[in-house]
Amino acid sequence: MAGLVSGRGALTAVVVIAAIVIVVAGLSIAPDGGGVPPDRPSATPSVSDLPPVTTPGPPDAVAFPPIATDSVAPSPSSSAAQGIQARRIQIRRLGIDLRIVEGDGIDAPIGKAAHYPGSGWPEGGTNIYIYAHARTGMFLSLWDARVGDKVVLTLVDGTQRTYVVDEVLPKIPWDAVRYLAPTPTEQLTLQTSTSYYGTAPRFVVIAHPSP
Fold it and tell me: How far apart are CA 84 and CA 159, in angstroms?
């Protein structure tokens, strides 16, 4: 697995993210292009109960996994080679079907899902971290994920791996970097946002390989 950022490196990451948060005025949008208000109830949000808004949509270069001081994040230098690269993610029940591209851990591409650099790949035996905007046609419907949902990753060799959701975590602090950390066994972590604000909670779904 990748080396870990620690000490001075972790502080640098925090400073970088703090600067980026200024740009993160649009981490997510509702289906009509508006923002999700920050005072949503504590229950898991539902796409169907989003209020109508007229706020313009956010800029494109927003939405990224949390980086913080309470732990360390994987280095982007080595562990990405572990396992077999995936090129597509599908969650049939939620209507998610996106191409996966290698991310930079800062910007989320429009119309695609991003692989966090330094996290694992299928068959790598560790944490696979995929993130995307909370937009219609992207990860917005991830808000309606349920335990038992099946996530299918199509690999570059044409084979597929299926993961079963066993945790739905709708309000993870933006700086909970532990969700980026390597895991002792293979795990798929999916992340999207819950609001325009850079420090708003993240929506995280965790799945493990299907038996």
Answer: 10
Q: State the pTM of this model.
A: 0.66
R_g (Cα) of the chain, nearest Å = 16
All domains in the chain, ordered by first residue: 8-209 (2.40.260.10)
Question: Residue 170: helix, strand or coil by DSSP?
Answer: strand
Q: Which two tokens stand for residue 196?
A: 């325009």
* Ramachandran assignment for 187, one of left (phi > 0), alpha (psi -120 to 50 degrees), beta (any other): beta
Helix (H) and strand (E) counts in the chain: 1, 8
Q: What is residue 110's DSSP assignment?
A: T
In angstroms, the CA 139 to CA 162 distance is 18
pLDDT tens track, the chain, 211 positions: 333 333 333 333 433 333 333 333 333 333 333 333 333 334 444 444 433 332 333 333 334 444 333 334 444 434 445 899 999 999 999 999 999 999 988 888 999 999 999 999 999 999 999 999 999 999 999 999 999 999 999 999 999 999 999 999 999 998 898 999 999 999 999 999 998 888 899 999 999 999 8
Strand partners, 99: 88
